[in-house]
Amino acid sequence: MITPKELYAWCKIPYYELENHPLLKVPFRLCKDAEEMGRIMARELVDEIKAHNERGEVMRAIIPCGPTCWYKPFAALVNAERVSLRNLVVFHMDECLDWQGRELPRGHPYNFRAFMERHFYGPIDPELAVPEENRVWLRADNVEEVRAKIWSAPIDLTYGGWGQDGHIAYNQARRHPFSQISLEDLRNSTVRVQENNVDTILALAQRTFGTAYQFVPPMSVTLGMKECLSARKVRVFSDTGAWKQTALRVALFGPVTPEYPMTLLQEHPDALITATIATASHPISEHPEWDLGVGE
Fold first, then answer.
1. Phi and psi dihedrals of 281, rounded to 5?
2. 247 and 280 in contact (C-beta within 8 Å)?
3. Are 161 and 67 in contact (CB under 8 A)?
């Protein structure tokens, strides 16, 4: 367990000291804002695709529904530079489900497939687009099929974000009182359907629905940490500010723990965390006058 004293020490570090801090346990990159992050994400993904194209190789990537800042610059680069996505295989990270494990209505803001079809695939010129058969979507009824496709060949790149508890994809910290998991369980977690945590539901409710938690999908289907971390490169990004700040500090400085799944990035040979100033900041670092009763 992480102690309040440890957490306080990590959270009081000013954001501008994070990039080169001597105690970092995983590489970290700071960027100004969502616009800059979007350009970085788009440019780096396009360059990876181009490198594979030049070698005549298929590129297999795990791609998230968010952060949303990179879709427009990605499409602009692909279209302007005439970068073919015909040899790109996209494994979508996760999908939200209703209380019976069914797909959400197409117009629901947490229908990830509909969002990606509009914003990731839709703006790409048709002659450059990812073929339909290379778009691997998750549903409640295709878990085994997706697992088999992922493990049929190496994954080149995982792009992602993280949640309030440091979840990557929907690999949330398991909070079930009668079914706790070990760190080894988390490492080996795989494609599955699950109930969403209460804290995840409340975080998404606050973010999207004015805290109307009744509209947040209560279930999800997700790739496991085993799939996400199997990639040769793992790059995670966040521009969404306050609800990601503490998980970032734990990932950068804390122990590897199932309490914060993204701490497993510390074990990956080529992982990089990128955050905006708003996400890398922390209120504890900005209020040295606070006495939280944890000592120094």
1. -70, 165
2. no
3. yes
Amino acid letter at 127? E
Residue written as token pair 């797909």: 103
For 151, how many CA atoms within 13 A lie in the half-sphere containing its CB?
12
This prediction's pTM: 0.97
For tokens 């499409």, the residue is 75
What type of residue sits at position 216? V
pLDDT per residue as tens digits for the range 132-166 = 999 999 999 999 999 999 999 999 999 999 999 99
CA distances from 296 to 89, 125, 179, 248, 291 (A): 50, 57, 35, 21, 10
Separation of alpha carbons 200 and 264, rounded Å: 19
Cα torsion 121, 124, 126, 132 to 10°: value is -20
How many helices (H) and strands (E) would you count in the chain?
11, 10
Distance, in Å, from the CA atom of 278 to the CA atom of 31, rounded to the nearest integer, reads 9
Contact 189, 183 (CB under 8 A): no
Residues 158-186: tens digit of each pLDDT: 999 999 999 999 999 999 889 999 999 99
Measured distance CA(110)–CA(65) in Å, rounded: 9
What's the chain's average pLDDT? 97
The letter for the amino acid at 149 is K
Range 193-217 burial, b when 16+ CB lie within 10 A, else e: bbbbbeebbebbbbeeeeeeeeebb
The span from the CA of 203 to the CA of 71, in Å, is 23
Q: What backbone torsions phi and psi does residue 33 show, to the nearest 5 degrees?
A: -160, -175
Residue burial 245-255, b: 16+ Cβ < 10 Å; e: rest? bbbbbbbbbbe
Residue 180, H or E segment: none
Question: What are 219's two structure tokens?
Answer: 């279930």
